[in-house]
Design brief:
CATH topology of the largest domain: Rossmann fold
Number of strands: 14
CATH class of the largest domain: Alpha Beta
Shape: globular
Structural class: alpha/beta
Number of domains: 2
Largest sheet: 5 strands, parallel
Radius of gyration: 21 Å
Order of helices and strands: EEEEHEEHEHEHHEEHEEHEHHEHH
Strand order of the largest sheet: 6-5-4-7-8
Helix content: 25-40%
CATH superfamily of the largest domain: Nitrogenase molybdenum iron protein domain
Distance between the termini: 33 Å
Number of helices: 11
């Protein structure tokens, strides 16, 4: 999850008007998160996505037929697996991207900045998006992608639906009488976790809980075992790809004799959240939020929703 796009500007998107040669012809433009102006002409017909969450947003906006390339990690929805693979987030194949002749490349946090500049130097229209630090950042990404793909109406409809469901969950949590302490476990065995200024930390806070690592001024890091014992979380939430991996991690926690005093372990409050669902800032991040809320405040959802 290392952050490689370091030149991002504040992400209030701006629509400007650029006068062209003809005196009465104007085209709109949008500024990406590197501060570069992107002209909004005709809707793009050949789109390449350089990140899984971007792919999910494109599909959610009804752009499946316009997508010509995705990364090897783009596995949702299932039809994304039929698209041409252009490599990974940090090692995309430049020649394959050029061969696909895209009229829009959407890049994201994690893509090498030097690759972004090389694509731009080759004349390819690259639109760069930076990751946000809140759950609601997903809505901002959807809005911006809606603009750059000229699917504004579809994006606004999707945003409205996601906001409505999100509000229902937040309303359920409004009267939560306790804020449990949570340890977020990333990447399997060990104590890799998330700190301040991450959307995962924000998700825990929005779920009316306390991330025990949330005061650490680092995004991703290995948590101290003694501090884990001292903080004594009520819940451990394991973010991994499969139930099998989760059971291995759960067993690992239970076998660490020096961690046996932790309430989450004593009470079997160790739960799974799917990695693809919870680490991608896209439409499904709100599903992840609901799952986390139901884990931490099950009594608030007993009557259904």
């Amino acid at each position: 999850m290392r952050k490689l796009l370091t030149c991002a500007v504040p992400a209030l998107w701006l629509l400007t008007h650029l006068t062209l040669s003809a005196p009465y012809i104007q085209e709109k433009s949008i500024i990406d998160d590197l501060g570069e102006i992107h002209i909004l002409g005709s809707p793009p017909e050949r789109i390449i996505s350089l990140a899984p969450n971007i792919t999910e947003i494109l599909f959610a906006l009804g752009l499946e037929e316009k997508i010509v390339g995705v990364t090897r990690y783009c596995n949702y929805p299932i039809n994304a697996r039929t698209k041409t693979r252009i490599g990974g987030l940090v090692d995309p194949d430049l020649e394959k991207i050029i061969h696909l002749q895209p009229d829009l490349v959407i890049a994201y946090r994690g893509n090498p900045l030097n690759l972004v500049h090389r694509l731009k130097d080759l004349g390819l229209p690259v639109f760069v998006l930076e990751a946000g630090t809140t759950v609601e950042s997903a809505l901002h990404l959807i809005e911006r992608i809606g603009v750059v793909t000229r699917k504004e109406k579809a994006s606004q409809g999707l945003i409205a639906r996601l906001k409505k469901n999100y509000k229902k969950i937040r309303d359920r949590l409004a009267n939560a009488d306790i804020r449990p302490k949570v340890f977020i476990n990333l990447h399997g065995k060990g104590l890799w976790t998330c700190g301040k200024n991450t959307f995962l930390n924000d998700m825990v806070l929005k779920a009316e809980a306390i991330n025990i690592a949330g005061e650490v001024d680092r995004a991703w890091f290995n948590y101290n075992r003694e501090e884990l014992i001292h903080q004594n979380p009520d819940y451990i939430v394991v973010i991994t790809k499969s139930k099998e991996d989760f059971l291995d991690v759960k067993t690992w926690f239970k076998e660490q004799s020096h961690l046996g005093s932790i309430k989450a372990i004593q009470n079997e409050n160790i739960f799974l959240l799917n990695e693809d669902l919870v680490t991608r800032l896209g439409p499904r991040i709100f599903e992840a939020f609901e799952q986390l809320a139901r884990i931490l405040h099950s009594s608030s959802f007993e009557a259904g929703i």
